[in-house]
Specification:
Elements lengths: L2 E3 L2 E4 L2 E3 L7 E5 L3 E5 L9 E4 L3 H9 L1 H11 L6 H12 L6 H8 L8 H13 L4 E5 L5 E4 L5 E6 L5 E4 L1 H15 L7 E6 L2 H15 L1
Parallel strand pairs: 9-11
Antiparallel strand pairs: 1-2, 2-3, 3-4, 4-5, 5-6, 7-8, 9-10
Helix pairs in contact: 2-3, 4-5
C-alpha cells in the first residue's frame, strides 16, 4: 500500500518520485535519508536529514539543476558555454535542435563550436537527462528536457514541435496500468499534422489560388 506524501509515494520506507522525476530516496528512520540520483553510479549515495528531503527533491526536479548536476557527474567541466546550453534546454518550449542552440548562443560565445554543442547534448542524452524526438521533418533531432510523460505535436509543414496537455496521457497511462498490470515508467506520444498557423496560411493560399 502506497502512502502519498505530497506528490511523492512512500512504500517500504522508500519515497518514489513521479515517473520521470529522476530520483529515488530511501528512508532510514527516524530522520536519515539517502537520495540516489539516476546519473550517479548505484553506489553513489547522498546522505541528508529528512527535513531537507523535499528541498533536495525539488532541486533535482528542476531541469536546470538536473542537467548541470548530470554534466558534473559525467566528469565534464561546467563552462559558461555548457551552462548556457543547459539553460536553453531547461527553458525552451520549442524542442531545439543542436544547430538551433548553436546559432542562438553564437552571438554570446563567438568561439563556441558546434562539436561542443553536440558533445554536451550526447552526454545528456546518454544519461537519460534529455529525450530526443527524432526527425520532425527537418532531418534533425529535437531535444527535450521535460522527462515527464507528455504528448508532442509536430507540424509537418513548418517543423515546429510543441507539448500538449499532460492530463490526457496520464489518464491513458492509468488505464493501461489497470488493464495490463504493468507499472508504466515512461511514455511519449507524437502526433503529426498542421499547426493552427500553417492551417490558416494554407487556407489563405487556397483561396488566393481559386480567385
Amino acid at each position: 500500500m502506497f502512502q502519498r506524501i505530497g506528490d511523492h509515494r512512500l512504500f517500504q520506507n522508500q519515497v518514489w518520485g513521479a515517473v520521470g522525476g529522476g530520483y529515488r530516496v530511501s528512508l532510514q528512520p527516524p530522520c536519515r535519508a539517502w537520495i540516489i540520483l539516476p546519473c550517479a553510479p548505484l553506489t553513489c549515495l547522498y546522505p541528508m536529514e529528512y527535513n531537507l528531503l523535499r528541498k533536495t527533491i525539488f532541486q533535482w526536479r528542476e531541469p536546470m539543476n538536473r542537467l548541470t548536476i548530470g554534466l558534473k557527474q559525467a566528469g565534464l567541466r561546467l563552462t559558461p558555454q555548457r551552462v548556457a546550453i543547459c539553460k536553453i534546454l531547461a527553458e525552451s518550449k520549442d524542442h531545439p535542435t543542436a544547430m538551433m542552440i548553436y546559432h542562438q548562443l553564437l552571438p554570446q560565445f563567438p568561439t563556441l563550436s558546434l562539436a561542443t554543442v553536440y558533445k554536451t547534448l550526447n552526454v545528456l542524452k546518454s544519461m537519460g537527462l534529455v529525450h530526443t524526438l527524432g526527425d520532425a521533418g527537418d532531418g534533425a533531432e529535437h531535444y527535450d528536457a521535460d522527462l515527464t510523460p507528455h504528448i508532442n505535436l509536430v507540424c509537418v509543414r513548418c517543423n515546429s514541435v510543441v507539448d500538449f496537455d499532460e492530463g490526457l496521457i496520464h489518464a491513458v497511462q492509468q488505464a493501461v496500468e489497470q488493464r495490463s498490470g504493468y507499472e508504466i515508467q515512461g511514455a511519449r506520444i507524437v502526433y503529426y499534422g498542421l499547426c493552427p498557423q500553417c492551417r490558416v496560411n494554407g487556407s489563405t493560399k487556397q483561396q488566393e489560388g481559386a480567385q
